[in-house]
Design brief:
115 residues, alpha+beta, Glutaredoxin, four-stranded mixed beta sheet, Thioredoxin-like_sf, Tscrpt_reg_Spx/MgsR, Arsenate_reductase-like
Length: 115
C-alpha cells in the first residue's frame, strides 16, 4: 500500500497518524523528493476524471498565473500542471490493491481499510 503526498500537508499528517494508530503499514511517496508518478495520475484520471485530482481551492492553485489556470481544460493540460506543481494535487492519495482514495476522512478510511 502506498500513500502519496507532501509530508508537511496537514491532511497528509492526519492520514498518516490514522494509519499508524490503526497499525496499518504503508509506504510513503513524497512528491517533493520522489516526484509525481505520471502513470498513477493517468490511471486515476481515467477512473475519476482529472477534475477530481486538481485542488482548485488550495494556495498553490491560487498562486498560479491566470494564464496557467485557464490552460487547464483537459487531462493533458491538468497532468502537465500537476507534474510541474505537485502541491496542486489533492492529497493524500492512497493506493491499495488497485483501489484509490483521495483526501482523508476517518469514516472513509475506516470503511476502506475494513475490507
Amino acid at each position: 500500500m502506498k500513500l502519496y503526498g507532501i509530508p508537511n500537508c496537514t491532511t497528509v499528517k492526519k492520514a498518516r497518524a490514522w494509519l499508524e494508530e490503526h497499525d496499518i503499514p504503508y509506504e510513503f511517496h513524497d512528491y517533493k523528493k520522489q516526484g509525481v508518478p505520471a502513470d498513477m495520475l493517468l490511471k486515476l484520471m481515467g477512473r475519476l476524471g482529472w477534475e477530481a485530482l486538481v485542488n482548485r481551492n488550495g494556495p498553490t492553485w491560487r498562486k498560479l498565473p491566470d494564464a496557467t489556470k485557464t490552460q487547464v481544460k483537459d487531462a493533458k493540460s491538468a497532468l502537465a500542471v500537476m507534474q510541474e506543481n505537485s502541491s496542486v494535487i489533492k492529497r493524500p492519495i492512497v493506493e491499495r490493491d488497485d483501489q484509490y482514495r483521495i483526501g482523508f476522512s476517518e469514516a472513509d478510511y475506516a470503511a476502506f481499510f475494513k475490507k
